[in-house]
Amino acid sequence: VQLVESGGGLVEPGGSLKLSCRASGFTFRRYTMNWYRQAPGKERELVASIPNAAGTIKYADSVKGRFTISRDNAENSVYLQMNNLKPEDTAVYYCQTRFEYYGRDYWGQGTQVTVSS
User: Fold this and answer.
1) CA 23 to CA 97: how far, in whole Å?
2) What is the pLDDT of residues 53-101, one digit of tens each?
3) At 28, phi and psi to the nearest 5?
């Protein structure tokens, strides 16, 4: 299993970024995919979650209305469109999935997002 994030960078407040996560080594379409983030000195938090099939997409309250999670099963990829970015969105963003049967989580290496003027 491999998850590779890309798309992070430095952006001014109010700006936008789109993160991508390319998955390999498992049947991507069968799994819920998640984006987490971890800011310096803070715990890792769930930002957004997209189910494997019909279901409810979930967002952290802090990003509702600004971030959009999506997936392309043909490309084995999940995305996070981030608009109206704020300094408090600064963090390392991680792509994650969980194999419930084995009780195991898989994480990408993370991509840094910095929101600053």
Assistant:
1) 10
2) 878 999 999 999 999 999 999 999 999 999 999 999 999 999 999 998 8
3) -55, -45
Terminus-to-terminus CA distance in the chain, angstroms? 37
Q: Which residues pair with 37 in a beta bridge?
A: 45, 93
Contact between 69 and 57 (Cβ < 8 Å): yes
What are the two backbone dihedrals, phi and then psi, of residue 2, each rounded to the nearest 5 degrees?
-140, 135
Question: How many Cβ atoms sit within 10 Å of the Cβ of residue 22?
Answer: 16
CA dist., res. 93 & res. 52, Å (int):
20
Beta-strand pair 9-11/111-115? parallel
C-alpha 57/C-alpha 45 separation (Å) is: 16
